[in-house]
Amino acid sequence: MKDQPKGELAIRVVAMPKDTNPAGDVFGGWLISQMDLAGGVFCRKIAKGRVVTVTIDSTTFNAPVFIGDTLCCYVSLVKIGRTSITVYIEAYVNRDFEDTRIKVTEGEFKYVKMDENRKPALINK
Question: Strand order in 51-61's β-sheet?
Answer without folding.
Answer: 8-14, 70-80, 84-94, 101-113, 51-61
